[in-house]
Amino acid sequence: MLLAAAACGGGDTTEGAPSAAPADGASSAPAASGVKVGLAYDIGGRGDQSFNDSAAAGLDKAVAELGVEINELEAGNGEAESAKEERLRLLASGGFNPVIAVGFAYSASVAKVAAEFPDVKFAIVDDEANKLPNVSNLVFAEEQGSFLVGAAAALKSTKGNVGFVGGVEVPLIKKFQAGFEAGAKAVKPDIKIQAKYLTQPPDFSGFGDPAKGKTAAEGMFDAGADVVYQAAGGSGAGVFEAAKAAGGMAIGVDSDQAKTADPTVADVIITSMLKKVDVAVFDFIKSFTTNSVVAGSKVYDLKAGGVDYSTTGGKVDDIKAQLDEYKAKISSGEITVPKE
């Protein structure tokens, strides 16, 4: 998933030569390993309180525990493909190896730049398309985690009416919707599910427009929903605002947003679908330091601990046993969650 406006912790949005400045709070860590990691964020970068921040957490852990040196660069809203290519090219040509691209929007750029730098190891989060021998594809079973929060929404709903707000209508986000709807219907087969996408590709602003997220969620609450799940990156902040104003409930995504969202709205977040991009990023960097990087796809599913639901705030404690039962059935294969 993608994001909203944010501050960058160690790169900049200009297309100049990359610096090797570490992220905030990581400058004192020793670069003992001699490994220089380059990371290119999706729209918004650090501070989005969601997808990018999860990647940043994995990077920070690598600095603290592995002593790597890092450089981070951010994407711009509405930028051309050439800008993404140049960002990756700057990192690879600047001596950063490995290079990590955060988000499926980098798919074509990784394919092109990785071919130009066959001795550099690349990883891309949320894309399986690339088959080059120096590219690792870090992907997640978003539909499985979304099933769990869909079940939570149905169990918590008193109106039998829930909503889903997607940032941009692309196959990746439709996985979130499919899992959410399957989980809700597993609990209440006749539940009403409202769904809306904020933008259509190639317009990806739906991942960084809280005002649009707020408007979409307001419409759902007005139409009778009492729980809304957002898979909309930075736009999700608007969904939380709408839930607060309506006296409704919301479900976060990617990170544990009851911890990261604005404290004035965090109390409406009953759970979040955890997508552990931090784990994938750290694992990839660690494998590089041990010369054990494997090309191709690595799927972080529920069984592997790659997705889950959060319990911060105790708002789902009363239904935890039911959610964990679904979790066990998905992990064992008894329940197969649809992806579309």
TrEMBL record:
Lineage: Bacteria, Bacillati, Actinomycetota, Actinomycetes, Streptosporangiales
Origin species: Herbidospora solisilvae
Family indicated by similarity: Belongs to the BMP lipoprotein family.
UniProt superkingdom: Bacteria
First and last residue of the signal peptide: none
Domain (ABC transporter substrate-binding protein PnrA-like) ranges: 42-339
Biased composition (Low complexity): 16-29
Membrane topology, from the record: Lipid-anchor
Record region (Disordered): 6-29
Record InterPro entries: BMP_lipoprotein, Peripla_BP_I, PnrA-like
GO cellular component terms, semicolon-separated: plasma membrane
Localisation per UniProt entry: Cell membrane
Pfam families: Bmp
Keywords: Cell membrane, Lipoprotein, Membrane, Signal
Official protein name in the record: BMP family ABC transporter substrate-binding protein
